[in-house]
C-alpha cells in the first residue's frame, strides 16, 4: 500500500510538472517572426513572468484556424476584420490593439509599370495593365487579405494574368521570389526592413492611409477550449499591452528605423 501510495504521488507530481513545463503557445504571423520582433519580446516576457512561449508563425488565416481548433492559447495577428469575427463567434476573448506598421509595394528599381507614388490602388491598376510580374502571398495571411482588398478597390476582385504568381508562402519567401524574378510584391514594413536579399527591389509605394497595418492580440476562449492556459495567456496579453511590452516594441529598430509602433489602449 505504501508503494502504491508513493507511485500515485510520483505520477501526480510528474503530471503537474509536465503541465507546468508546457510553454504558452502563441499563433502569430510570419511578419512578427521574420521581422525579428519576437527575438526582442520573448526574452523580456520570460524574464518578467518566468513563462516560456512557443510561437507558431503562419499566415493570419492559418493562425486563426489553429486558435479556433484550440491548438493555441493566444492569437497575435494582423487582419482586424477576421480577428473581430473570431471574437464575435465566441472563439476568442476580447481583441486588444498592440501595435501597427504599414504595408508597402516594392518592385524593381526601374519600375517598368510606372507605379511609383503614394496611391496603392492606382499602382495595382498599372501593374495589371502592364501585365507586370507580381508575387502574391496567396496564403490567407493578413498581407494577402490586404492585397485582395486593394485589388478589389482597383476593379480586379479576382486578380489573375500571366504575370500574377501566388506562392502560398510566407513574407520572406515571397520577397525572395520577387527579388529573383524582378516582380512587384506587397510587403509589411517590418519584414522588408529585416530582409537582406533585396537584389534590385526598392520601395515604390508607401504613405497611402489605406496601407495602415494594425496588429491585435486575443486570448483563446476557455469556454470553447477548457485546456488552454488561461492564466499564462492573460499574463502575455497584459504584458504585451502594458508598459513593458509596449516599450519593448517601441524600442525595436532595424537599421535605425522603427519596425512597429505601439498602440495599446489601457
TrEMBL record:
Please give the InterPro entries that the UniProt record associates with this protein: ABC-Tungstate_binding, PBP_domain
Q: Which residues form the PBP domain?
A: 23-242
User: Which Pfam families did the record assign?
Assistant: PBP_like_2
**Domain of life, source organism:** Bacteria
Task: Provide the leader sequence positions.
Answer: 1-21
Give the keywords, sorted: Signal
Q: What is this protein called?
A: Tungstate-binding protein TupA
The organism of origin for this protein = Tepidimonas charontis
State the encoding gene: tupA
